[in-house]
Amino acid sequence: MASVHAIPSLDEQYEFTAEAKRRLIIGGVVGVALVAIGSFLLASGVGEHAHEAVQGHGLSEGHEGAHGHYTWMTRFWANVWVNSVYFTGIAVAGMFFLSYNYLAQAGWSSVIKRIPEAMPAFLPVMGIIMLATFLIAGHDLFHWTHAELYVKGGEGYDPIIAGKKGFLNTPFFLGRMIFYFVSWYFLWRILRNYSLQEDLNGGTEYYYKSMKFGVVFLVIFAVTSSTAAWDLIMSIDTHWFSTMFGWYTLASWHVAGLATMTLVVVMLKEQGYLQAVNQSHLHDLGKFIFAFSIFWTYVWFAQFMLIYYANLPEETIYYRERFSGYGGIYLAPFFVNLFLNFVFPFLVLMTRDAKRTTVLLKVACWGVLVGHYFDFYTNIMPGTVGEHGGFGPIEFGMILIFACAFIWSVSTQLTKANLIAKNHPLLEEALHHDI
Amino acid sequence: MATPVNSKFLVGIFDDDDVVLKAVREVRESGVRIHEVYTPFPIHGLDVALGHPRSRLGIAAFMFGLTGCITALLLMSYTEKFDWPMVVGGKDSFSFPIYIPITFELTVLFTALGMVATFIISNNMGPTVKPLMFDLRTTDNKFAMAIDLEKNSLQETAIESILKQSGAAEVNVKQF
Asked: Which pairs from A158-166 meet CB under 8 Å and 24+ separation?
């Protein structure tokens, strides 16, 4: 089929319709209502009696979260944190994708470049929400923020956590968090500006400049993706640590970002946009999701396997909590996570035809997106809310609010530029992409 | 491709990859069956133009992988659980997670070796097999289109003129 495609027009302006806006607002309002209902139910103690029955079986000795101080607010903030981590990851994965495609001088992806480019605009929102959450509810979510842990000879003195004080202390933590969001966001702004100017002026100058800043981002992200994973997720289970955790979170963020990108491309195509995207581009995106789902599984398993084999109590407690701790409420999310992120995309996307069929591609993308929500859910919830966790209106509502806000942000960004980067120097290659 | 014995071939030699791709379409349209096209480098879309059915290599690879996977699991569970039960690191003698790395390795190993074997067999490259060489220059800068005369009803001269018309620089006869 080489060189027989008719090349369609490259001028496409995305329209963020009033109908779409209305739906997103309704979604957001429903989300707020669900969160309100869920909070009310939790505050008035409905459903709490169910937990009392199982508390005897809970592994309370390994639990180091905000045990005695649990209120329904903890679950609220834990939900905010899960969603913030998840959507921060998806947003920054857009920048990650752009950068390594510049570094690899990839041609095929230039035709869909505007989609990952639209995603990191959500980072400032996430940064502000996460900083606010940390300042308001840091003591509920992060055990290490309690001052009494560090008082030598005091009642609450914890030598292990006190030994980590050089890294885990509030000023340094806040500084790191601000650095992540500022560096990610501003490097994205630079690439975005070059990309928009390239649309107007053309030439290869912007391409080479973008490549340079893409490399700068990759170097920074190589370090900050790991440290962000330690800070935002791993430090919740303060005693426990895993050297695989940075990679593991990066893999999770990356594949969730790829699934989002693919979903947006397919949906835009179904609405009649992105005429220049052909089956070969979809095939490549499908391969990306397939490959990085397996990569995620590889890292997940590498972490699990070493802990399983070595059987050291201070390490196995992490999986013990998820397998049988807290009355076993995290067992289902644990296996849903493994199924949706490995078995499901592996089987659905294995054949060539599946990667070229939009229906199967969409099914796999949704599977991966739901799966990686549960990935962060199983990582964050046991250490924060423990036996009070669950899946109710507050969880659904919070996902809805964040998802609607994210879609709003991406749609707004898409309207700000032509849907295809029409002066990208490698665009010609992408238009004839044929595999 | 099975080795043809006592076959007479007409070999069109082309100078350019675009020309040979166009020629393949034209020759097939005029009702001539092409045995195979030999090129110094892969040409995009040539397999489609030749009308080759979808490659079954993927299925073969999957089968080899499955064989390796099952072999590894059977071997480990038999030796560790039934033949000589052993406790390693306080684990049950049948503990699935510790089998995964070896299962993965054998899956990859069987697939790799199986695909090398498939490659050698399907390309007639066994140690005793003499490969069909239609024109030595196809390893350098020429493109050869081989047409099996016994599988075509058209006359030799007619096919020759079709080849010439579609851009062949020369047309040779090759007998094996």
From this structure: A160/A238, A160/A239, A161/A238, A161/A239, A164/A238
